[in-house]
Amino acid sequence: MLTPFLQGFTLGANVERLTIAQVSDIHLGLLHREETLDLIISQLQELQPDLVVATGDNQNEANLLTRHQSTLFTLLLKHRPRFNEKATGLFDLQLSGHAHRGQIFPFNYVTALEYPQQDGLYFLPGGGQLYTSRGTGTWGPPMRVLSPPEITLFAVVPEQP
Question: Does residue 133 contact residue 24 with C-beta atoms inside 8 Å?
Fold first, then answer.
């Protein structure tokens, strides 16, 4: 589990800190069933975040963000770690997944060609940030090599005067 520390955001009156747990790319189905979900739920209960988010496909995010502009912290959930230039300055943090950081070495080099921001925190034009999860689950073979799974807990705090 990773814990990026994010600061410099307007959270609203009397809100000193917001913790967000991100799960991504669980792929429940034939290979991953109730046991997988039970483990993830257990980990989330242990973390006790203020907010749990699951990153999934979102279309037309720039349209939505333009219509709902806010001076408060704005979170964009977008499955694929791609930055839409039309959304510049319209959100504070984009949470993404999808690339699994390649899941099995050396595929991370291949996935980096399509998703160069495939793992970790990136600073974007216009002041926003993008965090791409390696994924909580797997796709294809139920294994990971040099790309461990993650549940990411974010602590968002207001900007210091």
Answer: yes
